[in-house]
Amino acid sequence: MILAAYLSFFLIFSSVGAAKNAGDDDWVHLPNKCEVCKFVSIEMKSAFTETGKTKEVIDRNYRFIDGKGAPPIIYNKSDLRFIEVVENVCQRLLEYNLHKERTGSNRFAKGMSETFSTLHGLVSKGVNVVMDIPYELWNETSAEVADLKKQ
Question: Is the CB of residue 16 less than 8 Å from the CB of residue 130?
Answer without folding.
Answer: no
